[in-house]
Write a structure and sequence with these properties.
two-stranded antiparallel sheet, Ferredoxin Thioredoxin Reductase, globular, 7 helices
Length: about 160
């Protein structure tokens, strides 16, 4: 169990980041609090808010990579939160900036970004390409490199 002050710190972070990114903290308070609690536990255990919604063979190695430290790369590049902490007012994750073959897009369909002028601080073509390339390789998907590059270029222009 995380320290109460760490839980409160992560709760403040979540609400502040939601405002900055043009999302809301999931309106399902039970779901939101479960993620906030998990983030706080990782802060107390590891010193960083490592995403609690993934399995890590080596949490310390993941911290070095920084990819899943909240707000994670997926959130800062695609405005997609697989934990459902940062959502639309309806409690859905934004999937507009994900390729059709991404699991988030397959599960939730197209969920448009209600505030395209906010968020996506890391949505540069090279960051998008790198994130998608890792996603494809980790899941052994057969997506041509040229398709990933084209998608990265097109998605970076959406602002």
């Amino acid at each position: 169990m995380a320290k109460p002050e760490t839980v409160e710190k992560m709760r403040r972070f979540a609400y502040n980041f939601a405002e900055k990114s043009g999302t809301v903290v999931n309106p399902n308070k039970e779901a939101a609090e479960a993620v906030i609690q998990g983030l706080a536990e990782h802060v107390d255990e590891l010193g960083k808010p490592l995403c609690p919604c993934n399995f890590y063979p080596d949490k310390l190695e993941e911290i070095k990579r920084r990819r899943w430290i909240c707000a994670c790369d997926e959130m800062q590049i695609f405005k997609y939160c697989h934990c459902l902490l940062f959502t639309t007012e309806e409690g859905l994750p934004i999937t507009e900036y994900l390729p059709e073959w991404h699991e988030g897009r397959q599960i939730y369909g197209l969920v448009k970004d209600p505030t395209p002028d906010k968020g996506r601080a890391l949505s540069k073509p090279d960051k998008i390409y790198k994130a998608l390339k890792e996603y494809v390789e980790e899941r052994n998907l057969d997506i041509p490199d040229e398709e990933i590059r084209r998608f990265a270029e097109e998605t970076a222009k959406k602002k």
